[in-house]
Amino acid sequence: MTFENILSETSNGITTITINRPKKLNALNKATIQELHEALEEANSDFDTKVIIITGSGEKAFVAGADISEFAHFDVKNGQKLAAKGQELLFDFVENLSTPVIAAVNGFALGGGLELAMSCHFRIASTNAKMGLPEVSLGVIPGYGGTQRLPQLVGKGRAMEMIMTAGMIDANQALEYGLVNHVTSEEDLMSFTEKIASKIMRNSSVAIKSAIKAINANYKDGVNGYQVEIEQFGASFGTEDFKEGTSAFLEKRKADFPGE
Description:
This protein is α/β, with parallel strands linked by helices. The protein has helices spanning 30-45, 76-95, 112-119, 146-154, 156-165, 171-177, 189-201, 205-217, 225-236, 240-250, and strands at residues 6-11, 14-19, 51-56, 61-63, 101-105, 108-110, 122-126, 130-132, 168-170, 182-184.
């Protein structure tokens, strides 16, 4: 599949999707959101892809925000449609993907960029990363899940401050807040992320899919996360990966999971 705004490459079980609009600091427009959806959908359906990494091209930005020129003239109805469609196509889609998605945050992750990073299953940042939700400085609020995911990750008080001040935090502060899992040098960001991806790939992709579903259930209104865990735990017993994993353990050998 050929894209105009992103690059997608698969190697050794890892699909790396790079937002490639460096002149716009990789800002998200409608076309880029659609291409990301298609690339993620393709990677998720590829049996050989075990982990997905999302990053930005160049050294300045992961994603510096949404493309404001696309919606500056919108009215109330169009604004609501923009947020609803974006959440459906990309942000909620990423969060609920059955393949692990890691954000490799290089440079600025602002507005929609931080919202994209937060929708990934976890985040790794380079030392030059800057993160924030500056929407209130434009007279609007985060619309791609930022008001929901940021408090889940850093706590209500810190999220309130970040959103109200429209300020940025650096990589080390993001690490302190729990917004990112690791901070590494710019040069080592991708190799470090790939190293963690390789650790994930040693394990059962079927079990990981179930774990993602169970963890996400805790953050959905009206859903009993404990019950989802019980159901997914039980379902694991019917998989070939469970048979292989337990057999390998008892036979004191390394498991070779079939992914079934």
